[in-house]
Amino acid sequence: MRKRSIIPILYIAFLMLPIYWLVAMSFKTTGEILSGFSLFPQTFTLDNYRVIFTDPTWYWGYINSIIYVSLNTVISVCVALPAAYAFSRYRFLGDKQLFFWLLTNRMAPAAVFALPFFQLYSSIGLFDTHLAVALAHCLFNIPLAVLILEGFMGGVPKELDETAYVDGYSFPRFFVTIFIPNIKAGVGVAAFFCFMFSWVELLLAKTLTAVEAKPIAATMTRTASSAGYELGLLAAAGTLTIIPGAIVIYFVRNYIAKGFALGRV
Amino acid sequence: MKTENQRAWFFVLPVLLLVAFNALVPIMTVVNYSVQETFGNNVFFWQGLDWFEQILTSDRFHAALGRQFLFTFLILIIEIPLGIIVALSMPRKGFWVPVCLVLMALPMLIPWNVVGSMWNIFTLPKIGLLGYFMNDVLGVNYDMTQQPLSAWITIVVMDVWHWTSLVVLLSYAGLVSIPDAYYQAAKIDGASPWKVFRYIQLPKMKTVLTIAILLRFMDSFNIYTEPFVLTGGGPGNSTTLLSIDLVKIALGQFDLGPAAAMSLIYFAITLLVSWLFYTLMTKDDAK
């Protein structure tokens, strides 16, 4: 047992090294970064973080990201709940085809959609709004939410539905007061993964925004190319984008595999 | 048992509308562009299948497609076995399980462009930890902005870093579902560790591994942001994968027709290979 645990330890060390480096860089001054190699920050500074929290172009990037990501999560989970219920409980015309078609949206390269998305959302007047990004991310997040929720609903016995009807519950009342509380773990996991995939995606978010709804990720790439070598600032911004995931992941630790596998485990 | 109920369509209608709006309208736009030529001012001319012919016979497309298949092949051949090995050696219960799971999942939750920036900072010669270690400690000449080989190694290692945990988590989920009785039976029979793996663990992991291979294929084949941020497709064109080339044509040169034709070919290849993988891997189950 002892000898075997060396493999996970080495693997985790490999995963942590670049993250450590990013965090270490964020506490260094630009002068120190450019002057040469140092394993730990020699002159520990919080200046990089101070810039981010005081400069509106930086902190609005975070706020914009959080707005469209939250919006997307709410939309995705709300429309996915009844659909997942239908897939898990009923047979209907074209159900299998529809399910497969939902899956294929995950196979579409985002690069293929970048330009048409720009034109579509410009033509309906949503370009550079939070709603545009939130709706665009529905392309891959709604199928994800449907699949995850359907996976969880499969574990709820059908007798529950039947008993509720016998007891005189109407469908909406049963769904909201009995069924959803029964799969609240699933709802949490689906929301987490919608949040995550919307948070990590950049190509569509960047294409659909200019100024008003610009995500933090886009602020970062523009800084990287325009302001030259502000590596400390870039590292601090990067470190801050890791934090939401790092905080929430503990709560879904037992369902991580299920979520990443689109509910198919 | 599921009951037949056509009214279930009302439940899936919102999903259908939202996804169709996002999937069908853009895809039809692409199809529209792919058969037309424009000189601006929204004036279009029917072009037939010329763009498709042009893309399919162009050396540039072949080169990008070749690089893309090489990249995806390397990713699968490294990440799948590595993921299985790590999953097999992970503890099954106890305090360390959630710690391992959370730490391993962390790279997957980082925004993709941050992954690129992070590896950029990590690999810079003189400044980055890896760049410094390779050049100044080991004395290997390593600089991904200059050498195609360094750039390739970096994007492959970056993807291994980013996504191997997906394979680990899925394999692990398959492994913990094996009842202890199976192992006890194997022990009584005096089965070697390899036999246990081959006849007990591997068959039990089959479903999750199918999913893992499919997901890793799709995502590595469609990869854009991470290598774009890290290398920008360079040096030269050496790491210009399909998506990067597509965006260059569509948004850089604004050649809408060829870009649209290329998009459709690209999507078709992804669907076709995914379907092939899926049929091959689930062939035995059908019998």
Structure, described:
With 265 residues, chain A is mainly α. Chain A has a domain at 67-215 and 248-260: MetI-like fold, CATH 1.10.3720. Helices cover 73% and strands 1% of the residues of chain A. Chain A has helices at 6-26, 30-35, 47-54, 56-89, 95-104, 110-123, 130-136, 138-153, 158-166, 171-182, 184-200, 203-207, 216-226, 231-248, 256-260; one strand at 90-91. The longest helix of chain A has 34 residues, at 56-89. Chain A starts with 5 loop residues before the first helix and ends in a 5-residue tail after the last helix. The relative contact order of chain A is 0.15. The model of chain A has no long low-confidence stretch (mean pLDDT 85). By secondary structure, chain B is mostly helical. Chain B has a single domain, classed as Orthogonal Bundle (MetI-like fold), CATH 1.10.3720.10. Chain B contains 13 helices and three strands; from the N terminus they run E-H-E-E-H-H-H-H-H-H-H-H-H-H-H-H. Chain B has a two-stranded antiparallel ribbon. The longest helix of chain B is centred in the first third of the chain and has 30 residues, at 59-88. The mean pLDDT of chain B is 86. At the A-B interface, helix 1, helix 4, strand 1, helix 5 and helix 6 of A face strand 1, helix 1, helix 4, helix 5 and helix 6 of B.
Mean pLDDT of chain A: 85
**Radius of gyration based on Cα positions of chain A:** 22 Å
Tally the helices of chain B: what do you get?
13
The topology string of helices and strands of chain B comes to EHEEHHHHHHHHHHHH
CATH topology (level 3) name of the domain at 67-215 and 248-260 in chain A: MetI-like fold
What is the CATH top level name of chain B? Answer: Mainly Alpha
Category by helix and strand content of chain A: mainly alpha
Total strand segments of chain A: 1
CATH superfamily placement of the domain at 67-215 and 248-260 in chain A: MetI-like
Physical arrangement of strands within the biggest beta sheet of chain B: 2-3
Largest β sheet strand count, sense and barrel closure of chain A: none
How much of the sequence lies in strands of chain B comes to under 5%
The oligomeric state of the chains shown is heterodimer
Name the overall outline of chain B: globular
Mean pLDDT of chain B: 86
Low-confidence stretches of chain A: none
